[in-house]
Amino acid sequence: MRTVTNINKDWAFSLSAKEIPSSFPADWDELNLPFTWNGKDGQDGGNNYLRTKGYFAKTLTKEELTANDIAYIEFQAVNSTAEVFFNGKKLTTHHGGYSTFRVKIDNADIKDENLLVVTADNSPNDFVYPQMADFTFYGGIYRDVNLITVNKEHFDLDYYGTPGIKVTPEKDGDKWEIEVEAFCEGEVKFAIYDAEGNKIAEKTESGKNPEAEFEFDTVHLWDGLSDPYLYTAEAVLIADGEEKDRVTARFGCRTFNIDPEKGFFLNGRSYPLRGVSRHQDRPDIGNALLPEHHREDIDLILEVGATTIRLAHYQHSQVFYDLCDEKGLVLWAEIPYISKHMKNGIDNTVSQMTELVTQNYNHPSIFVWGLSNEISMGGSADESLLKNHRILNDLCHKMDKTRPTVVAAVTMAEIDSEYVQMPDVISYNHYFGWYGGTTDMNGPWFDDFHKKYPGRAIGISEYGCEALNWHTSKPTQGDYTEEYQSFYHEELIKQIADRPYLWATHVWNMFDFAADARSEGGEDGMNHKGLVTFDRKYKKDSFYAYKAWLNPEKMVHICSKRYIDRVEDETRVTVYSNCDEVELFANGVSVGKQKKGKYPFFYFNVKNVGETTLRAVAGELSDEAVIRKVSEPNPDYILKEEGAVINWFEIDAPDGYLSINDPLGDIWATAKGKIVLLGTVMSLLKKMKAKKAEGGKAEVAGFDTEGMKVSKGMINKTTIGMLMGFSIKRVCMMAKGIFTKEELLDINKKLNKIKKK
Fold first, then answer.
1. Range 3-150 classified under CATH 3.10.560.10
2. Which residues contact 120 (CB under 8 A, 6 or more apart)?
């Protein structure tokens, strides 16, 4: 029978090795897996984390390798290109850092003591995805490594990390048909078990990749969060009357459809998909997670009330998929075909998609296969890009006839393009109200799409804004305060709640995550759009906005607890609650009661005198916070960027006159402002061109603009409206290092002479 042994312990590691060692390298560092060498430098900013080849070595005994007839080594993720050597012999090369692959050990190569060497290479190239994206590509062996031994008669271990068994439950009229396919050759005993472990059906079939079909009049449905019921399919390979190998797979019986007008339906009832996206990394350990990290993430996602998760932007751990099956979360699974199409990368997208579908087909939590993310940044008319999408779309439909395909399109992607119209359903990444534009642009944009294409299901694959421990009573776009993030998500929740046709919506992001190219918000190397901090220790106020909206468990939360010192005589206090009524007390005196309206947000005006203890009461629940009257703003609450070209307190902004803090749209609205703005744009373009000519990089928000193309279709009302929401200061923050402080102050002086319209 098959044995599976985890071999994470007692590896040697080197970043300085130049060749494959012939014996165990005693002078290398000792470590246990999982491991990445970018746990520090991939999170500290500068876009200079080490992208290189790392060497891992381990000894294996003959006894370990010959427990059965054949031995395989299973790697659950090595980023991003792996080479595997056994006793100096190269066994395989695997391109793709997020999926399982296996290598077979030739018995003739096995000695009494054996040396396994693995190289992990996250160096840049032009054919393995991802290469350009807003997250860190951690190098290393960051998931489990297992030794699998099997008899010569065994279920397939060679095809793209297959589990060896494929289960397809489908409803046919009033009956359920469950097809179980085993990847082997010979006689197979199939069985179905219920969640309690009782065998409820069995069959024996023979041949090449035998299949068994089971029919049931009734089944216990996998019914989302309320009842995620799981069956187990088992396949036992028989040869010479003996059991030779056994594989199992959990599965769920469910029906679903995506209605362009009414949204998502699960098992015949409306089931709104409202949730989050997830990046997996953590402080210091990057992607090298342990099972308890995945469980903590699931618990937090369930607490916020999400019904769905978009697993961005790559294949996640089987531990996490299993948890989603068990908890009833609806998943969007995708490959890292992202940001920049590479003509040499088509084969890699095919192999990564094949792995994604093959390895995860049985998970009932997965409902859609994601083809790409924001891949049209350089335009969507490129024939190579379109060919790539046709191939992937057809591949998914061929491998899985039960799930639709989806694309996450960037704002500028033309809605009429083949790229947008090709997948079964479409979602857009929109950041109106953060990267330009205003929050109120979101809903109308989707209404316009829905009106033009009423037969196309449309959703939101990303939306969000960044927040750190900065605070203000006058939140504005781009200030990185917790208060602006709260305002942003309140507004988006209102717009989403009023549009049931949105088939799925996913907040970007559930957790802050590392993006080493970033330099925003006062902490380099991070994307701070999470509802929860990178270390999972602090739930931002926006977390509670969603909890109040989505989680039926009664709650009450006072916002801005970290914003104590306030200068105004009267301040606004925001409370989130899903209770019918909230009463706020200030130092024990009632400020007033409010009935819940259409949305779970309550706003109170409170006199700010001395120190005030606030207490929000909703039924038997309560929450407390403290505010304090001060004469001057607390500088600890205000963003001061280290290394920034210019900070807020250096900018003169006289009342009634323009400044570089004002949106481009306000500047453009004045005749003299147009002149200043056009001159600034011309200067910006000239400086970026000069920087390129000098061999440098002209980067915007950490992305090299090399190869970026702007097509005619990308210049439309949407993108113009979005751009007009940026301030000159914000543009210069994103295009870091283009203007000096003196140049920006000179632009500001010119604007200060122009009255606002």
1. no
2. 53, 54, 56, 78, 79, 80, 81, 82, 139, 140, 141
